[in-house]
Amino acid sequence: GGVVFTNNVNSKETNKIKDYFDYVNYDWWYSFNDSNLQKYILKGLLNNNDLKILNLKVKEYGDFVKYTFGEELPTITTSLQYSNVKDIPFNNSTINSDGLMLPLNVSYELDLFGKKRLKTKSVEKQLEIYNYQLQGAYISFVSNLSTLYFNIVRYNEIISLYDELILIKNKILKDEIITYNNGLNRKVNINQTKQDIRKIKTERINILKNRDALLTQFAVMLGETPTK
């Protein structure tokens, strides 16, 4: 399958997201053929604050690896010196000249016992571990985000069914009141229907609370501020 990027994702962000596809097995999630799910996964990969922090930590350690490797290399220092040279012979005449000199000093500490090399290998292995941990974090993130998404969709469908059920119960109540007014029904039936409606509404409120709690978690995972 192909990947559809939303219009608000620029080319730089697109390239960044593509780096994560191998991590999260995006093609498998894409196979659900749910454009909303695709959009949220892409948004989460870009904006989730926890993932941003992990990426910064890995980048920071990557810079440390470069620094450690740099300690194995020779060091070059220079100092700027001014030279005022006068009366330079030139074709049976003399010229005056000022000059700048940049002496270079190269120093190298022999790594006789290989301690620096071992240190570099150690931090390189640690960076590799951090990269695997980052990959695991991305897999876990997409899995949790998708689970939240499907549960929210399920709650929305249940709430919709409750709304339909309340409409049906209200219609039944209306018919029962009409038949009661015409002497064809008992008061106990009306009271029972009213009680059923109250129970259904209470259940619906509880489901709404559960759904809203999931929406809050979902917003945080997308790097958004939850709104009431």
Structural description of this entry:
This protein has 228 residues and is mainly alpha-helical. Helix content is 68%, strand content 12%. The protein has a two-stranded antiparallel ribbon with strand order 1-4. Helix 3 crosses helix 5 (115-181), helix 4 (49-70) runs antiparallel to helix 5 (115-181) and helix 5 runs antiparallel to helix 6. The longest helix has 67 residues, at 115-181. It is rod-shaped. The two termini are 37 Å apart. Mean pLDDT is 78; it is low at 1-9.
Helix/strand order, N-terminal first: HHHHEEEEHH
> Total helix count?
6
Radius of gyration: 35 Å
Beginning-to-end CA distance, first to last residue: 37 Å
Helix-strand makeup class: mainly alpha
Shape: rod-shaped
DSSP strand content = 5-15%
Low-pLDDT runs: 1-9
Summarize the structure.
It is built from six helices and four strands, in the order ααααββββαα. With 228 residues, the protein is mostly helical. β2 and β3 form a beta hairpin.
